[in-house]
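so my prof wants the structure for this chain in the tokens format not the other one, which i didnt know existed until like an hour ago. anyway here's the sequence
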Amino acid sequence: MTQRIAIIGGGKIGEALLAGLIGSGTPTKNLVVAEKAPTRAAELADEYGVLVTDVKTAVESAQYVFLAIKPDDVDEILRVLAGADDNGESERVTVTLVAGLPLLRYESALQAGSPVVRVMPNTGMLVNEAMSAVSAGRFVGPEQLDAVVNLLKSVGRVAVVPEKQMDAVTAISGSGPAYVFLLAESMIDAGVALGLTRAQATEMAVQTIRGAGVMLSDSGLSPVDLRAAVTSPGGTTAAAIREFESGGLRATVYQATAACAAVSAKGGRRVEVEGLGASNGS
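here's what i got, hopefully its the right format
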């Protein structure tokens, strides 16, 4: 990948993407960040050795522009993008990591026929373990989509989905880490109630969830098979599972994810990617 890549916004999302791209071998000379907060701009320049500049300068030299900004700043940045000159070598692709805003919002504001890709990441991006869902706009070519997918693989796994599924993606992977954190919090509190110290309960719950996640990812077995392997008939795990089921765990998960998707479908300004902050990047 030799194209120039601009990241608009130097917050957690922007920095995670920047670090992932550098870690995967993208030369720093091909990366540019737009960040208006002087202190933050200096931090990024010192830490990663990249050019940190204003939005107009950054986008005019880039083939791929990633928007890691707040929803309230989108219109301002789109005005700059719409007025920016093409780089003269290839069509500029705008990639939005802003939660909740549809492709049409960008396509309507940019120059006619501008390729736009919408991404829904999650907090795993901070540790290069993101689950990012990608939807291509009307004017995105196959090679452009493949390039964006490959760039995002620097911070985790990527799935290409139609935009109509983005509300479901938000409910499962976008907000999903918060569900796991809530489970961990509940397990820790339960451990304390059963007589463990909070430090002991925390270590046990966190490592248990970590190990279970690796098994889910790497074993090749389904969640049903993995759960069954731990659950002996009439045993301790069976007793716990019985209480989860009688308490309506599955129904609660269905209801919670449906509520999340419904909020996402209402327009998205309140949709959040749990744990990921964004800079205004201008």
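also thought this was worth mentioning. The chain has a mean pLDDT of 93.
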